[in-house]
Structures are given as C-alpha cells and as structure tokens.
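Please check this record.
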Amino acid sequence: MRIVLRVLINAAALWVAASFVSGIHAGGIGSVLALALVFGVVNACVRPFLKLVSCPIILLTLGLFTLVVNAVMLMFTAWLGRGLGIDFRVDGFVPAFLGALIVSVVSTLLSWVLISKSEG
C-alpha cells in the first residue's frame, strides 16, 4: 500500500510541475501515472549512484548541487519515458530545474500529510 501511495504522490507532484512550468508537458493522467512509476524506479536505482559520484560537489556547495541532480533525474526520467511511449516532455534544463524544485516540495508536503496519517 505504501508503494502505491508513493507512486500517487509522485504523480501528483509531476502533474503540479507540468501545470505550472511552461517547459514541461504531460499528455494526460495516464501519462503522469506511468511516468510516476518510471520516476520512482529511476530515483531508486540511478539517483543513489549519481549522488555518490557527485558527493564532493554536493559537499562543496553545501547541498545546493542536489537541486542540479534532481533536475538531471527529471530530464532522464522524461527521456526514458519517451522511449517507453509515455507522453511527457521536458524542454531543457531550466524547466527541469524548476520542475524538480516543484516536484520536491510537493512530494515532501504530500508525504508529510498522507504517509504520516496512514502510519498513525
């Protein structure tokens, strides 16, 4: 149940990013749900390696480089999703950066509200 909730939270966060950032385009709710699943897999598999490799830069910038890592992860997820036939597009680094910032904030807020309530 918790995995399904995480996918739905990611889908909501991706939908908000696609709604507010002009360079991010989503086809519909099916595309957003499918991309949320891909996003979860990519974050579980690729993101730890990417953060390990960029650890010196993250430390040097006091964690701010994590925002760049998140933007790269969103661009990679959109690219991978297009390869899988998912209608989701990110038009460059700036929209990816803004979108990753929105996805991070929305998913954190929804996780605090929904996951803490489901556990309590």
Notes: The mean pLDDT is 92. The CA atoms of residues 40 and 79 lie 14 Å apart.
